[in-house]
Amino acid sequence: MEQYVIKGGNPLNGEVEIGGAKNAALAILAAAIMTDETVTIENLPNVRDINVLLQAIAEIGAMVDRIDAHTVKINGSFIKDVTVDNEFIRRIRASYYLIGALLGKYKKAEVALPGGCDIGSRPIDLHIKGFRAMGADVDIAHGLVIAEAEKLNGTHIYLDKVSVGATINIMMAASMAEGKTVIENAAKEPHVVDVANFLNSMGANIRGAGTDVIRIVGVEKLHKTEYSVIPDQIEAGTFMFAAAAAGGDVLVKDVIPKHLEATTAKLVEAGCKVEEFDDAVRIISDGKLHHTQVTTLPYPGFPTDMQPQMAVILGIAEGTSTVTESIFENRFKYVDELTRMGANIKVESNIAIINGVARYTGARVNAPDLRAGAALVIAGLVAEGITVIDDIYFIERGYEEFDQKLRGIGAQIEKVSDEKEIQKFILKVS
Ligand SMILES: CC(=O)N[C@H]1[C@@H](OP(=O)(O)OP(=O)(O)OC[C@H]2O[C@@H](n3ccc(=O)[nH]c3=O)[C@H](O)[C@@H]2O)O[C@H](CO)[C@@H](O)[C@@H]1O
Ligand SMILES: C=C(OP(=O)(O)O)C(=O)O
């Protein structure tokens, strides 16, 4: 098992390049199997979830040709099996996109119930409601979602809750249904738009992605395309928050600043300076942060995937802040770990009440999930002394070369795999 070991206290300065969005790329990879022609996808993040999904796609027979770390060619014409199940696929969330993709193309899918971060109960009832409304029989048995239809019909679907996964999944299946599907109360996240753009580049007919109402006219066939995934707004936001907490001056490159507006707004409220360029944002912080209030909401609101990182910076801001989590009921699991580092946070229902402390102190902590793990890294970067973070495989689900990118802007962080290496790092930095 690997750990990150961090010596806190260095300001962050310099430039960091952001990769492709994990949550867009996962859906795009699944959608790529919907044509029998070869699809080329660029700007893939080289992270664990992507590799798990690519392996599952290869296992059902598709050609998966990894051109380099960030480019893949996929050809779905060789698929001979619509059953997707292995021990790794069960642990990721985005496996559910293979239901929409296979059902749309082959009218049949048997896919392991999805996993993902343990941040709440995470049902997929809205996905199932959508597939059923299109005429599919959907059953859950032996840990698999089994969906089948003689044909899929366009339909009108109202999502009771704004769901990124259900919006994208229904959009995929509807792309190859007969007739027109309307999704109301659709999610508007940038990755919903990116997946719609990708499907349209394969010949789908999707209008309205990025608004509350998406209209899809099904087509018989999709064709080859070459597509580049949008930048990862959550990776970008994480580096912005790291710079805010540690202090310094960091240019976060290869981003779409519009996607970062909610994050930027909160950083400015907390006392940082943020400059926007065409495809970069510069964050300047003296490390002296103010209290504020944050509520997570669907896009364009403040992203739930940035909530733990936000709480970490408010933990060392002057005064009392509140963070309200309105999407997932169990996304404060990092609070106990942060408390070990000196934070003063009380969680009441879905609200964290944060009394800012003067400093964090290094400790040995566990990454409870992906974003919480990244948030604990930020805490380690500003803490006095040494922080060791266990279970970093969660972090590696979604951040490519996190330690290397942080070192590039001045952090003292290393990935280690045993106690000896931890001691070696401590000797080196003391
Ligand atoms: C792989 C991926 O892209 N994961 C992202 C995706 O997760 P995911 O697709 O799981 O999140 P959703 O947007 O679907 O979930 C939003 C809310 O709707 C609820 N819900 C969802 C579906 C459903 O059928 N029934 C239901 O009740 C969920 O429990 C949650 O309370 O969007 C989340 C919200 O931006 C992000 O935190 C995750 O990083
Ligand atoms: C929660 C996340 O991922 P997943 O939905 O795959 O668990 C995330 O990306 O922050």
TrEMBL record:
Residue positions binding UDP-N-acetyl-alpha-D-glucosamine: R93, R122, P123, I124, D125, L126, K161, V162, S163, V164, D305, I327
Residues with 2-(S-cysteinyl)pyruvic acid O-phosphothioketal modification: C117
EC code(s) of this entry: 2.5.1.7
Known pathway: Cell wall biogenesis; peptidoglycan biosynthesis
Pfam families reported in the protein's UniProt record: EPSP_synthase
Location of the Enolpyruvate transferase domain: 7-406
Subcellular location per the Swiss-Prot or TrEMBL entry: Cytoplasm
UniProt similarity note: Belongs to the EPSP synthase family. MurA subfamily.
Function: Cell wall formation. Adds enolpyruvyl to UDP-N-acetylglucosamine.
Protein name (Swiss-Prot/TrEMBL): UDP-N-acetylglucosamine 1-carboxyvinyltransferase
